User: Fold this.
Amino acid sequence: MLELEGVAVSYGEVHAVRGVSLRLEAGRIACLIGRNGAGKSTILMAISGIVPAAAGRILFEGKQIDGLSPAAIVRRGVSQVPEGRRVFPLLTVQENLELGAFTRRDRGGIAADLEAAYAAFPILAERRKQAAGTLSGGEQQMLAISRALMARPKLLLLDEPSLGLAPRIVEQIFEALAAINGQGTTLFLIEQNAQMALELAHSGYVLENGVVVLSGASKELRTDDRVRRAYLGET
Assistant:
Protein backbone atom coordinates (compact mmCIF):
# COMPACT_ATOMS: atom_id res chain seq x y z
CA MET A 1 0.00 0.00 0.00
CA LEU A 2 2.76 2.44 0.95
CA GLU A 3 6.34 2.52 -0.27
CA LEU A 4 9.13 5.00 0.40
CA GLU A 5 12.11 4.82 -1.92
CA GLY A 6 15.23 6.65 -0.78
CA VAL A 7 13.28 9.52 0.76
CA ALA A 8 15.27 12.48 2.09
CA VAL A 9 13.92 15.57 3.84
CA SER A 10 15.87 18.66 4.85
CA TYR A 11 15.13 21.76 6.88
CA GLY A 12 17.54 24.23 5.40
CA GLU A 13 21.00 22.82 6.05
CA VAL A 14 19.71 20.19 8.46
CA HIS A 15 19.22 16.73 6.89
CA ALA A 16 16.39 15.32 9.00
CA VAL A 17 15.73 12.17 6.93
CA ARG A 18 18.36 10.56 4.74
CA GLY A 19 17.55 7.93 2.13
CA VAL A 20 14.73 6.16 3.96
CA SER A 21 13.13 3.18 2.22
CA LEU A 22 10.26 1.18 3.71
CA ARG A 23 7.16 -0.77 2.71
CA LEU A 24 3.77 -1.21 4.33
CA GLU A 25 1.36 -3.91 3.18
CA ALA A 26 -2.39 -3.29 2.98
CA GLY A 27 -4.34 -4.34 6.05
CA ARG A 28 -1.29 -4.47 8.30
CA ILE A 29 0.17 -2.35 11.10
CA ALA A 30 3.74 -1.07 10.92
CA CYS A 31 5.51 0.98 13.56
CA LEU A 32 8.48 3.32 13.44
CA ILE A 33 10.48 3.66 16.64
CA GLY A 34 13.47 5.80 17.51
CA ARG A 35 14.66 8.46 19.89
CA ASN A 36 13.41 12.06 19.89
CA GLY A 37 14.86 13.96 16.97
CA ALA A 38 15.51 10.84 14.89
CA GLY A 39 13.24 12.09 12.10
CA LYS A 40 10.14 9.99 12.75
CA SER A 41 7.57 12.81 12.61
CA THR A 42 9.26 14.24 9.53
CA ILE A 43 8.64 10.98 7.68
CA LEU A 44 4.91 11.12 8.48
CA MET A 45 4.73 14.76 7.43
CA ALA A 46 6.43 13.93 4.15
CA ILE A 47 3.92 11.14 3.49
CA SER A 48 1.08 13.59 4.24
CA GLY A 49 2.55 16.28 1.99
CA ILE A 50 3.12 18.72 4.84
CA VAL A 51 6.86 18.89 4.18
CA PRO A 52 8.42 18.22 0.75
CA ALA A 53 10.73 15.32 0.03
CA ALA A 54 14.08 16.62 -1.21
CA ALA A 55 14.87 13.28 -2.84
CA GLY A 56 13.30 9.88 -3.41
CA ARG A 57 9.72 8.84 -4.07
CA ILE A 58 6.62 8.15 -1.95
CA LEU A 59 4.14 5.74 -3.52
CA PHE A 60 0.63 5.03 -2.29
CA GLU A 61 -1.14 2.12 -3.98
CA GLY A 62 1.54 2.24 -6.66
CA LYS A 63 1.07 5.92 -7.51
CA GLN A 64 3.50 8.67 -6.60
CA ILE A 65 2.06 11.12 -4.07
CA ASP A 66 5.06 13.25 -3.09
CA GLY A 67 4.46 16.67 -4.58
CA LEU A 68 0.70 16.52 -4.07
CA SER A 69 -1.04 18.86 -1.63
CA PRO A 70 -2.06 17.51 1.79
CA ALA A 71 -5.73 17.78 0.79
CA ALA A 72 -5.10 15.75 -2.37
CA ILE A 73 -3.33 13.09 -0.34
CA VAL A 74 -6.29 12.89 2.05
CA ARG A 75 -8.55 12.42 -0.96
CA ARG A 76 -6.33 9.55 -2.10
CA GLY A 77 -7.03 7.81 1.22
CA VAL A 78 -4.31 8.87 3.69
CA SER A 79 -5.20 10.57 7.00
CA GLN A 80 -2.92 11.60 9.84
CA VAL A 81 -3.44 11.89 13.58
CA PRO A 82 -0.84 14.54 14.50
CA GLU A 83 1.38 14.61 17.55
CA GLY A 84 -0.28 16.57 20.34
CA ARG A 85 -3.80 15.88 18.99
CA ARG A 86 -4.25 19.41 17.57
CA VAL A 87 -8.00 19.49 17.90
CA PHE A 88 -9.78 22.77 17.17
CA PRO A 89 -10.25 23.91 20.78
CA LEU A 90 -13.08 26.40 20.30
CA LEU A 91 -15.17 24.08 18.13
CA THR A 92 -17.37 21.39 19.57
CA VAL A 93 -16.57 17.70 19.45
CA GLN A 94 -19.11 17.21 16.66
CA GLU A 95 -17.77 20.17 14.66
CA ASN A 96 -14.26 18.71 14.90
CA LEU A 97 -15.54 15.39 13.60
CA GLU A 98 -17.45 17.03 10.77
CA LEU A 99 -14.29 18.86 9.68
CA GLY A 100 -12.60 15.47 9.37
CA ALA A 101 -15.04 14.72 6.54
CA PHE A 102 -14.23 17.90 4.60
CA THR A 103 -13.37 15.95 1.44
CA ARG A 104 -16.69 14.08 1.39
CA ARG A 105 -20.16 14.96 0.10
CA ASP A 106 -22.10 11.81 1.08
CA ARG A 107 -24.24 13.16 3.90
CA GLY A 108 -25.71 9.80 4.77
CA GLY A 109 -22.30 8.20 5.04
CA ILE A 110 -20.97 11.07 7.13
CA ALA A 111 -23.89 10.75 9.54
CA ALA A 112 -23.30 7.01 9.82
CA ASP A 113 -19.59 7.54 10.50
CA LEU A 114 -20.39 10.10 13.20
CA GLU A 115 -22.49 7.52 14.98
CA ALA A 116 -19.74 4.92 14.53
CA ALA A 117 -17.26 7.32 16.17
CA TYR A 118 -19.61 7.83 19.08
CA ALA A 119 -20.10 4.07 19.40
CA ALA A 120 -16.33 3.48 19.43
CA PHE A 121 -15.73 6.22 22.02
CA PRO A 122 -18.96 6.74 24.02
CA ILE A 123 -17.41 9.58 26.03
CA LEU A 124 -17.34 11.63 22.80
CA ALA A 125 -21.08 11.14 22.43
CA GLU A 126 -21.56 12.56 25.91
CA ARG A 127 -19.33 15.52 25.01
CA ARG A 128 -20.56 16.11 21.45
CA LYS A 129 -21.69 19.68 22.14
CA GLN A 130 -18.73 20.50 24.36
CA ALA A 131 -15.77 22.61 23.18
CA ALA A 132 -12.90 20.30 22.27
CA GLY A 133 -10.43 22.41 24.24
CA THR A 134 -12.19 21.48 27.48
CA LEU A 135 -11.65 17.74 27.00
CA SER A 136 -9.01 15.76 28.86
CA GLY A 137 -5.88 14.69 26.99
CA GLY A 138 -7.22 11.17 26.51
CA GLU A 139 -10.56 12.43 25.24
CA GLN A 140 -8.79 14.75 22.80
CA GLN A 141 -6.75 11.81 21.48
CA MET A 142 -9.96 9.84 20.95
CA LEU A 143 -11.35 12.84 19.10
CA ALA A 144 -8.22 13.25 16.96
CA ILE A 145 -8.34 9.59 15.91
CA SER A 146 -12.06 9.75 15.20
CA ARG A 147 -11.65 12.99 13.22
CA ALA A 148 -9.02 11.35 11.00
CA LEU A 149 -11.28 8.34 10.45
CA MET A 150 -14.10 10.62 9.25
CA ALA A 151 -12.22 10.89 5.93
CA ARG A 152 -12.61 7.10 5.56
CA PRO A 153 -8.87 6.57 5.04
CA LYS A 154 -7.32 3.43 3.67
CA LEU A 155 -4.13 4.33 5.54
CA LEU A 156 -4.09 5.98 8.97
CA LEU A 157 -0.86 7.64 10.14
CA LEU A 158 -0.48 8.14 13.89
CA ASP A 159 2.18 10.32 15.51
CA GLU A 160 2.77 9.47 19.19
CA PRO A 161 -0.82 8.53 20.15
CA SER A 162 0.18 7.68 23.74
CA LEU A 163 2.06 10.92 24.42
CA GLY A 164 1.19 12.40 27.81
CA LEU A 165 -1.62 9.96 28.56
CA ALA A 166 -2.23 7.84 31.65
CA PRO A 167 -1.46 4.10 31.26
CA ARG A 168 -5.15 3.14 31.48
CA ILE A 169 -6.03 5.53 28.66
CA VAL A 170 -3.08 4.33 26.59
CA GLU A 171 -4.39 0.77 26.82
CA GLN A 172 -7.81 1.95 25.69
CA ILE A 173 -6.32 3.83 22.73
CA PHE A 174 -4.27 0.84 21.62
CA GLU A 175 -7.29 -1.44 21.90
CA ALA A 176 -9.16 0.99 19.66
CA LEU A 177 -6.30 0.97 17.13
CA ALA A 178 -6.35 -2.83 17.00
CA ALA A 179 -10.10 -2.69 16.37
CA ILE A 180 -9.66 -0.09 13.61
CA ASN A 181 -7.10 -2.33 11.91
CA GLY A 182 -9.43 -5.29 12.36
CA GLN A 183 -12.00 -3.42 10.30
CA GLY A 184 -9.55 -3.17 7.41
CA THR A 185 -7.71 0.13 7.88
CA THR A 186 -3.93 -0.01 7.47
CA LEU A 187 -1.96 1.73 10.24
CA PHE A 188 1.49 3.31 10.30
CA LEU A 189 2.40 4.23 13.85
CA ILE A 190 5.12 6.35 15.41
CA GLU A 191 5.39 5.70 19.11
CA GLN A 192 7.81 6.40 21.97
CA ASN A 193 6.38 3.43 23.87
CA ALA A 194 8.32 0.91 21.81
CA GLN A 195 7.05 -2.07 23.81
CA MET A 196 3.40 -1.36 23.11
CA ALA A 197 4.09 -0.35 19.51
CA LEU A 198 5.88 -3.60 18.76
CA GLU A 199 3.16 -5.62 20.48
CA LEU A 200 0.48 -3.96 18.34
CA ALA A 201 2.31 -3.88 15.00
CA HIS A 202 3.03 -6.68 12.56
CA SER A 203 6.31 -5.14 11.42
CA GLY A 204 8.62 -2.38 12.53
CA TYR A 205 11.43 -0.04 11.59
CA VAL A 206 14.07 1.53 13.81
CA LEU A 207 15.19 5.03 12.87
CA GLU A 208 18.42 6.64 14.07
CA ASN A 209 19.60 10.06 12.90
CA GLY A 210 17.27 9.99 9.91
CA VAL A 211 18.37 6.54 8.73
CA VAL A 212 16.59 3.17 9.04
CA VAL A 213 19.06 0.93 10.88
CA LEU A 214 16.84 -2.08 11.58
CA SER A 215 13.62 -3.52 10.18
CA GLY A 216 11.67 -6.75 10.34
CA ALA A 217 8.75 -8.53 11.92
CA SER A 218 7.79 -7.03 15.27
CA LYS A 219 8.34 -10.28 17.14
CA GLU A 220 11.90 -10.39 15.79
CA LEU A 221 12.61 -6.78 16.75
CA ARG A 222 11.29 -7.40 20.28
CA THR A 223 13.97 -10.04 20.78
CA ASP A 224 16.80 -8.15 19.07
CA ASP A 225 19.43 -7.28 21.68
CA ARG A 226 20.00 -3.79 20.21
CA VAL A 227 16.30 -2.95 20.39
CA ARG A 228 15.93 -4.42 23.87
CA ARG A 229 18.81 -2.36 25.24
CA ALA A 230 18.06 0.92 23.45
CA TYR A 231 14.25 1.04 23.40
CA LEU A 232 12.77 -1.56 25.75
CA GLY A 233 14.86 -0.80 28.83
CA GLU A 234 16.22 -4.34 29.04
CA THR A 235 19.78 -5.51 29.52
About this structure: The mean pLDDT is 94. Strands lie at 2-11, 14-24, 29-33, 55-60, 63-64, 78-81, 155-159, 186-190, 203-208, 211-217. The first helix runs from residue 40 to 47.
